[in-house]
TrEMBL record:
Signal peptide: none
Sorted UniProt keywords: Amino-acid transport, ATP-binding, Nucleotide-binding, Transport
Family, as annotated: Belongs to the ABC transporter superfamily.
CDD domains from the UniProt entry: ABC_TM1139_LivF_branched
Cited PANTHER family: HIGH-AFFINITY BRANCHED-CHAIN AMINO ACID TRANSPORT ATP-BINDING PROTEIN LIVF
Organism superkingdom: Archaea
Molecular function terms, GO-annotated: ATP binding
Name used for this protein in its record: ABC transporter ATP-binding protein
UniProt organism field: Halomarina halobia
Residue span(s) of domain ABC transporter: 2-231
UniProt keyword Lipid biosynthesis present: no
InterPro entries recorded: AAA+_ATPase, ABC_transporter-like_ATP-bd, ABC_transporter-like_CS, BCAA_Transport_ATP-bd_LivF, P-loop_NTPase
């Protein structure tokens, strides 16, 4: 499905992604793990076409998408849930969902699919998004991505800034998506929660992929986690 091959990404003169390669197959949940500043968000930004400069090869279902603007990447079936959710706080739940809808005539059907996943959003459909809890806002961000029926969802730092109880709620939501064969890349530093969801995992450090394996193997290797992820 998605392949990154020897990708290099830059902010100005800073070389952030360095010869980065990874692959996501259909119906897989892939974890991209790393410390703060390791390059997780930059990887997502590179895929979505919002890095100022990027080199290498990124293909989606065999089509080269590197350097395309975000709307064109979106049209190739990739949706992005940015870090800190980035919902529109002054808009209602329904208005936020409309922002992700590419076929307005299918609004009723697509909205109901989201509400079946997240009943709380249906209860708050006319509520301003900024007045909801962090967990509910994350559900809204996920729902906004799903209304377009993407082939792949990039989930960037889904647990960032959430209270422990809300971390569990969001983990449950992502687990539900995984049961529905939705292909995802989850970029986060919450090792336990992310590895529990994932099939395979990549560890990134200083813009390099330094290790990859099935998620269960990385979850059981505490020495590896301590070295690259700071897990004690």
């Amino acid at each position: 499905m998605l392949v990154l091959d020897s990708v290099n990404g830059y902010y100005g003169k800073s070389h952030i992604l360095q010869d980065l390669s990874l692959e996501i197959k259909a119906n897989e949940i892939i974890a991209l793990l790393g410390r703060n500043g390791a390059g997780k968000t930059t990887t997502c930004r590179g895929i979505m076409g919002v890095l100022p400069r990027i080199e290498g090869r990124i293909t989606m279902s065999g089509t080269d998408i590197i350097g395309l603007p975000p709307d064109k990447v979106y049209n190739h079936g990739i949706a992005w849930i940015p870090e800190r959710r980035r919902i529109f706080a002054n808009l209602t739940v329904a208005e936020n969902l409309m922002m992700g809808l590419t076929e307005p005539d299918q609004r009723e059907e697509r909205f109901q699919e989201v509400f079946d996943l997240f009943p709380r959003l249906e209860e708050r459909v006319d509520q301003q998004a900024g007045t909801m809890s962090g967990g509910e806002q994350q559900m809204l961000a996920i729902g906004r991505a799903l209304v377009s029926h993407p082939d792949l969802v990039l989930v960037d730092e889904p647990f960032e800034g959430l209270m422990p109880s809300l971390v569990d709620d969001v983990a449950d939501v992502l687990s539900e998506l995984s049961q529905r064969d939705i292909t995802m890349l989850i970029a986060d530093q919450k090792t336990d929660e992310t590895l529990e969801l994932a099939d395979r995992a990549y560890i990134i450090e200083n813009g390099h992929i330094v290790h990859s394996d099935d998620a269960a193997s990385i979850a059981s290797d505490l020495t590896l986690q301590e070295e690259y992820l700071g897990v004690q």
